[in-house]
Amino acid sequence: MAKLVLTVVGDDRAGLVQSLADAVSTHGGNWETSELAELAGAFAGIVLVSVPDAQLDELRTALESLDGLLRVTVHGSGDQTDVRLGRRITFSVLGDDRPGIVRDITGILSGHSLTIDVFSSQTREAPMAGGMLFEASITARAPEGADLGAAIADLERLASEIQVDLTLE
């Protein structure tokens, strides 16, 4: 079985996910994991599918035929071993929105050689104070031997500097 990561983007409208799911299913594929969202009128996402090796080329062709409805980019081409070594850290951030929050958080993570498993964020109106709030939920993985405590200390320092709440889970 081949594992493929599909990135998808298109103008938001009914039937986009159905078209993608039909192409995967028709070629014996299995839809395993996905993150899909509407963002400012565009539909975007990432999907992990597995497909029998014998159907791989046919699925790629079917996905290319969705162009015009959905632009699909296929990443990967065969069996890949998903090795998830290292310790995980999961945390959330909540505070006033400002430019650079994502850059600052990810700068600390990459500075400590942590990789991001999940990064989900949004902005929303602050209920009573006015303005916008930034909210993120992040899961990152530290490689063996990395100083996870130092990364956490740097995240806590940043949270204090930019006045956001950091919650470690």
Automatic annotation (TrEMBL):
> Which ranges does the record mark as transmembrane?
none
**Domain of life assignment:** Bacteria
Name its GO BP terms in alphabetical order: regulation of DNA-templated transcription
Pfam families documented for this protein: ACT_6
Q: Where is the ACT domain?
A: 90-169
SUPFAM superfamilies for this protein: ACT-like
Q: Which InterPro entries match?
A: ACT-like_dom_sf, ACT_dom, GcvR, UPF0237/GcvR_regulator
Q: Which PANTHER family match?
A: UPF0237 PROTEIN MJ1558
What name has this protein been given in UniProt?
A: Amino acid-binding ACT protein
What organism is listed for this UniProt entry? Humibacter ginsenosidimutans
